[in-house]
Amino acid sequence: MSVFTNVLKQIKQAANHSSIPPSIFEQLKNPERILQFSFPVTMDNGSVKVFEGYRVQYSSARGPYKGGLRYHPQVNLDEVKALAFWMTVKCAVVGVPLGGSKGGVKVDPKKLSAGELERLTRALTRRLALFIGPQKDVPAPDVNTTPEIMAWVRDEYEKIVGYQEPAVVTGKPLNSGGSQGRVLATAQGGMYVLQELVNKLKIKPKQTTVAVQGMGNVGGIMAQLLYQAGYRVVAMSDSSGGIYNPRSLDVPAAEKFKKQNGSLKNFPNTKAISNSKLLELPVDILIPAALENQITDKNVSRIKARVIFEMANGPTTPEADIKLAKRKIIVVPDVLANAGGVTVSYFEMVQNLQQYYWHEGEVMTKLKPIMIQAFKQVWQRAEQLKLSLRTAAYVIAIERIAQAIEARGKY
Fold it and tell me: Closest Cα partner for 285 from 228, 224, 207, 340?
């Protein structure tokens, strides 16, 4: 299934409920620039291996391109184009003055040594150096990339340009110009949105069951925050599968178990469950926080959750979206739910450029009203136009992007 085909459907659906000119609609269907490259890396055994990569710079109408960089064996151009568009929308939904981009290298980083991973990252940076920078395009961590990898990108870039430029990437370690609160940002931003939704629906956390697919920086931290807030987290999973206890899980104990054993397999007092079956559990809130295309036309009829809260990018296909809407299942879209990450990435850029850094409390104090306001605007537009939250978010985003394009003039 083409992920970018899904994007085009989402753009068209939003455009049908907006008054943007057809010419701008046509522009939004295509990225401004696609970079496709290959680069050699010397492996530990002395052999040379060539890797393939992509960087899609989708829109700069609202500001410099901004988007993650992922390392994954299944990276492809179709996926990267879709992710770049979603970043464009995400920045517009929360109102940060940035465009959207995304990058990826086709590689399984788990099969590389630390030295090979660093050499790959530095070789990649040399290919990208002409096209990135705080006034051009600012990469960030994504699937299988880390703060340490971002520090390597910064260091290699600075060697090339010959001066200090911490704002060339975000998601860096604190001692390399990173922002306090960045690790928590995506999950905490999601919690701010979720709390607003819970208030709208008038449901109580202690009576609310939640299943979380994915235990990375987003899903794992989200599960912990939910547990601390009193929600009944009944299922969690990582790439190898998951665990389920219909009463509740001890999330901190599960996190500790995974760190010690490498997976959740055989965690006490739970039933083993696959990632696909986790999606079909009878829970109040389902949180996909892994990869794209998890809820599709094939399994949507078996979804039992009252709310789907998308902490992953693109976990629900347009066909599934339509069926979920018909069943009155609320879907809080990724471009709103997980936008806390890019918002704090923007904060990191601001701090780097000003050379003035904030403490974590200050970061979260600035993040909370942005996420709450974005939710309220999307909710209000959805009620006004009788749309799903996703379509309402897209309508708001493309209107803001269109206004920026029109303000620049036609020529």
Answer: 207
